[in-house]
Amino acid sequence: MDLLSLPTVSVLSDNVTIVEQDQVKIVRVIHDKATAGIALHGGHVVSYQPAGQQDLIWMSDKAIFDGKAALRGGIPVCWPWFGRIAAPAHGFARTSEWELVEHRENDNGVIVELALFPTEETHDIWPNMFDARLLVEVGDELKVTLKVTNIDDHEWTFSGALHTYLNVGDILQAETTGMGGEYIDSLLENQVCQGGDTLVLTDTIDRVYTKPEAQIKVEDKVLNRTLTIENSGHNSAVLWNPWSQGAQGMTDMADDGYKTMLCVESTVHAPSIQQGITLQPDQSYELSTVISA
């Protein structure tokens, strides 16, 4: 995504400006270490490009920036649930308007904090009071942290994911390691399967890896780099690529879009909302992902 060509709405500091893509405002970070973009629609990271590198984050050329649809690509925030265990799929955070709360910068990078608070619309979907914060740290690496706090007078339960789309040169030549050997295969009616140490895709994949290692690595032989993903607060890592048949069924992805992306997601996976993580009043929980090349 070409952040530098987008029209500027306002200048907040030497490193941070608000720009606009169609109907969506984006917090643009330009720093010696890296450039990045975070859409206020969805609290959605749309770009992270370290100095001298191609973007580590994949965005669809056909993503719809109408301020209503979820953005295709980037790092969607799936919360207060992940998957289709309730409606809408992946929760409401990725289609809600987040607020820019704070931005700080120094020689090491820029930190941007966004917030999402309950509205009548969210209450109709999920009748709980919450405070959700997204901390995006842009420097030599990208760190994204979702912190949710129960500000209600009763407990509530959630699941979620930071649904990262990684940019790769050619999915057929990308080798993934560190995801662990055991996974739940969504394409085989959630059957528990055993896999190898190294994954090279030849077809669609939709797997919940239940025992990921501390670091997952994607060796990209075309772009001559290794992407490292380090997650915390998760109970699994979801790997997904829709392949040609899936891409052809999406209006917001080019038919060949699947060739240059792989999702490696920091995930709190649960078969139902009730089986997710329970927070008591005033309790908080953090889910994060750190991405570097």
From TrEMBL:
Top EC class for this record: isomerase
Pfam families named in the record: Aldose_epim
Record field: catalytic activity: alpha-D-glucose 6-phosphate = beta-D-glucose 6-phosphate
Enzyme Commission number(s) of this protein: 5.1.3.15
InterPro entries: Aldose_1/G6P_1-epimerase (IPR008183), G6P_1-epimerase (IPR025532), Gal_mutarotase_sf_dom (IPR011013), GH-type_carb-bd (IPR014718)
Gene3D superfamilies documented for this protein: 2.70.98.10
Keywords, sorted A to Z: Isomerase
SUPFAM superfamilies registered for this protein in UniProt: Galactose mutarotase-like
Superkingdom field: Bacteria
Similarity field: Belongs to the glucose-6-phosphate 1-epimerase family.
Protein's name according to its UniProt entry: Putative glucose-6-phosphate 1-epimerase
